[in-house]
Amino acid sequence: MNAFRLAGDITHLISILVLLLKIYATKSCSGISLKTQELYAVVFLARYLDLFTDFISVYNSVMKVVFILSSVAIVWCMRRHRAVKRSYDKELDTFRHYYLVGACFVFALLVHEKFTFQEVFWAFSIYLEAVAIIPQLVLLQRSGNVDNLTGQYVFFLGAYRALYILNWIYRYFTEAKFSRWIACISGLVQTALYADFFYYYFLSWKNNAKLNLPA
Amino acid sequence: AKDEVAKDEL
């Protein structure tokens, strides 16, 4: 474990806590894409299949459980909770995310480290995570203005993978046999997707203005 | 086979 990875995991956890705060404090999920949340639940369920088979560390197992439970809880809340469900931007959140799931699964069948059930699902979860934010970014573009908590949520979510890239660079130079190409390249694509959001987020922060994304 | 680098990352 290195500082970049720990910072990345904590940033990831913060993004989830910010989202939970927004939903529970405001009893609203306006501006949040249910499709992105569903994709994240699939990402964690597909990636942590080894939760019961490979024990890495208490930290690793606890964080896996937290990520799985929180992502499922957010989806459940946005689908079932009466008050929250009413505020869901159903007509704006129309990205066909099933195509993303299908494309990533096919790609994982083609490109993986080893052709085993667990490895294919791991690669699938890595590819899916890279594109999971797309429905959310599309929703933000359509709704134009971004409320603070949603903006912070997307910012931390993007920042965590950028920290992971630093972690991979660090591990590449410090560990003899470290090669995590699938995660590295996918992580670069993932962070690049946030690039324009980061740009407008920084501008709004610098000008102390409200975050408005160009339609 | 290359000994499996355990998926120690989240």
Quickly list its features.
heterodimer, A: 215 residues, mainly alpha, 9 helices, B: 10 residues, little secondary structure
The profile of the biggest β sheet of chain A is: none
Radius of gyration of chain A: 17 Å
Largest sheet of chain B: none
Quaternary organisation of the protein chains: heterodimer
> How far apart, in Å, are the first and last alpha carbons of chain B?
24 Å
Low-pLDDT sequence parts of chain B: none
Mean pLDDT across every amino acid position of chain A = 95
Helix content percent band of chain A:
over 70%
Q: What is the largest interface, and how many residues per chain?
A: A-B, 20 and 8 residues
- Counting DSSP E segments of at least 2 residues, the number of strands of chain A comes to 0
What is the average of the pLDDT values of chain B?
Answer: 68
**What's the gyration radius of chain B in Å?**
8 Å
What is the strand tally of chain B?
0
Shape of chain A: globular
What does this structure look like?
The complex is a heterodimer of chains A (215) and B (10). Helices cover 73% and strands 0% of the residues of chain A. Chain A has helices at residues 3-26, 34-47, 58-80, 82-86, 97-110, 117-131, 134-143, 148-174, 181-206. The model of chain A has no long low-confidence stretch (mean pLDDT 95). Chain B contains no helices and no strands. Classes of the chains: A mainly alpha (215), B little secondary structure (10).
